[in-house]
Amino acid sequence: MPSETDTRVYAYLVGVGVTHSIAPLMHNYIAQALGHDWKFLAKECPTVEDAVQLFRRSDFAGGVVTMPYKRTIMDHLDGLDEYAIRLGACNNVYRTADGKLRGTNTDWRGIKGCLLGASEAGRGKPAVLIGAGGAARAAIFTLYDQLECRQIYLVNRDRDEVKGLLEEAKRVYGDGLDIIYVDRIEKVQGLASPYYIVGTVPDAEPSTPDEVEVHQIIKSFLSTPQEKGVLLDMCFKPRKTRILQAGKFAIASMSLGRAWVHSLPEKLAQASKAGFKGVEIFYEDLEYLAKEKGPVNDSTLLAAAEETRAICDHCGLKVIGMQPFLFYEGLTDRAQHREKIERLKLWFAIVKVLGTDIIQIPSNFQTEGISGDLDLIVADMVEVADLGLKEEPAVRFAYENLAWGTFISTWENLWEVVRRVDRPNFGCCLDTFNIAGRVWADPASASGKTPNADAELTASIQNLVQTVDVNKLFYVQVVDAERMQSPLIEGHPFYVEGQPARMSWSRNARLFLYEQERGGYLPVVQVAEAFLKGLDFEGWVSMELFSRSMADPDSTVPGTHAQRGIKAWNRLAEELDL
């Protein structure tokens, strides 16, 4: 309890749209740890006067100010420190020893810590600032005064706000700071690539022409093919804003060419050049890179992983996972199972070097030596999940149903395993091909489709949206496939005796989305929309392709495939308004 001389009890987060905030949980924990019997509350304040009324109470312990009052609160306080005055905004209010309300600004400290914590490489380089309100002023101070960014590209829909900010910045910082107002997407062309991008505006669906233009400008900056940098979005709702989601598109390394034909460093360079932000690393690529260092063993594989990580860091690519950990679950020979577990230990080491925490396990498609006993499959997955939880940091597993899997071939089969494993680090990877290619398409059919294809896919997708817990969806893959000109049966060029038709089809004829001119025909957008809109998935989206073209020795293949992939992503993002 507060002492007789210290009546402070309540601290507040004040603003509009704050009741969802996690700040009370965080601050109450901190207060308790420091021995203060304070309570932190998030309070909706329709007016700035409502906020001031709370602060004037005798039991006021401190206040955090957010939108839209970071500037208007200043006129209601008894004093301001040097940071609030210089930045022209206040985000914290405290009571002095003599009972006065004093304002300060700590936003700049948080911005600086986040940017430098991610990378110091942006010092002195151009930066992008989205917004022109109170938080934007803290961002300018951080970028210019603390990080020596002399040129800042300003993106904001309200020209009056921009005018006020430019005049204030000129008065405070003089001629040393060059703020360029980017109000049209055409202006992005010709500007030096920014390194730091700081967003300070609420996340809202763009509706007016100016808002739509702003979002297009932001996407253009995020797609610049030069050096990749750091994106910080200060918006606190939703957890993954449109700006952050705009930077979460990846491509699988094998989709840029087979490892024995096209080198991994070249493929990564082309992925970065095209504008991708992330990459799935295919084990085959690491193996061939390791061969350049000597016999393939644990040492050379780890060295290959180190080189891959260095290239990805240089190219601004995030490794989102490594795949595929093949032929694992349901083995009837338990000695083979134990060998897989031993091999997994190396994979744990590799993913740590790569800087990812995801290992993808595709469903087993062996025709012999495996069991469909669901209890055994679940037990095998529990084993790897528990081993992953013991790692530091923990390793996650993304289970994927292959459309030709021997026992796990549908998302429903997959989800039953995920549900029964019931571990926080065991989830799934959903693939548009492996869903549409299983329930809707049949390459061995003259029509290319299953009976009642449309109705069954619609029902399956509706069930998926109602059933799958999005927190267990670790990433998604978007991919189409060619319609076969003739049924993929004996006599077809892709036919392999004893191999499922869907497997032969997958290995030879997958495509990027929107490539109907190449024969693409699956209802990919319908399935992708279920992932991204129906489930409200906010994580990584990987553009994937398996095709005979991957083995084409033409040196342009990695670049061509990367451009095809980014074109597909951009069109999907536009169609689904991502």
Automatic annotation (TrEMBL):
Membrane-traversing stretches: none
* The name this protein goes by in its record: Xylose isomerase-like protein
Residue stretches making up the Xylose isomerase-like TIM barrel domain? 268-557
Q: Where is the Shikimate dehydrogenase substrate binding N-terminal domain?
A: 13-93
Q: Name one Pfam family in it.
A: Shikimate_dh_N
Q: Name the domain of life.
A: Eukaryota
Alphabetized, the UniProt keywords read: Isomerase
Give the organism, scientific name. Answer: Aspergillus pseudotamarii
Q: In its keyword annotation, does this UniProt entry include Ubl conjugation?
A: no
Which segment of the chain is annotated as a signal peptide? none
A single GO molecular function term of this UniProt record? shikimate 3-dehydrogenase (NADP+) activity
